[in-house]
Design a protein that fits this description.
The chain is of the alpha/beta class. The protein is about 25% helix and about 30% strand. The protein is globular.
Length: about 230
């Protein structure tokens, strides 16, 4: 990812930016858990992770087999990983071309609603840069476009340290979503930014835009690191 400059006030607190490229979901999850543990041990670094995952379905704490449209054996046959994880929410899908963003950070404002609403605003502002209008639904975290879900949201919080985050459909073909009941809503339809703009989106560009908007929203100065 090419690094933008002069994003925020130079006196703002630092936020480490890491681009993990395409990484297997359980490896990304393990990395996050190690980072969270470092925070809880007093030596963590606030970090914003950008990544993509191979085809994977995740079930949050409230999710179960009723959120799946095929058997667990079918997932194996299709080459789709199935993971039960500790974030909030039900079932969601990951696949290449989807931008996944994990903030692993100690909240400076001890208010989860403040963080959630700010993060969703970042997504809406990001979509606006592509002339796409993002919609929010009260009590249902995520972002929709013309009634179709474009961004899933699920945060885990431990002693005010966040993990997990958002999954924004950018260039992905949405095929993995056919295997699940998205977020417990059988009639939920999904979309992608490429579908709604009619063109492929530059992933490096949208990553830079995400970093810029996130740092502006929460008052950080980005510091770019290795994978």
């Amino acid at each position: 990812m090419n690094h933008p400059h002069n994003i925020t006030d130079q006196n703002a607190p630092l936020l480490q930016i890491q681009d993990w490229g395409e990484l297997v979901y359980d490896q990304a999850c393990a990395r996050q858990m190690n980072m969270v543990q470092a925070h809880l041990s007093g030596c963590g670094v606030n970090t914003l992770v950008l990544t993509e995952h191979p085809a994977t379905v995740t079930l949050g704490r409230r999710g179960g087999d009723s959120d799946l449209r095929c058997s667990t054996e079918d997932f194996s046959r299709r080459g789709v990983a199935l993971q039960r994880i500790n974030r909030g929410g039900l079932a969601t899908a990951h696949e290449p071309g989807q931008l996944v963003v994990y903030p692993v950070m100690e909240l400076s404002v001890k208010d989860l609603h403040h963080f959630t609403s700010g993060f969703l605003k970042v997504v809406v502002d990001l979509l606006a840069q592509y002339d796409v209008v993002g919609e929010l639904k009260a009590g249902n975290p995520g972002v929709w476009v013309n009634g179709r879900k474009i961004c899933s949201f699920g945060i885990a919080l431990k002693r005010w340290v966040t993990s997990h985050g958002i999954a924004l459909n950018v260039n992905n073909d949405l095929s993995t979503f056919k295997l699940i009941v998205p977020c417990g809503a059988p009639h939920e339809q999904v979309t992608s930014l490429a579908h709604d703009t009619g063109r492929s989106v530059d992933m490096q560009q949208i990553k830079r835009q995400m970093v810029t908007l996130f740092c502006q929203q929460f008052g950080y100065q980005p510091v770019f690191g290795d994978k």
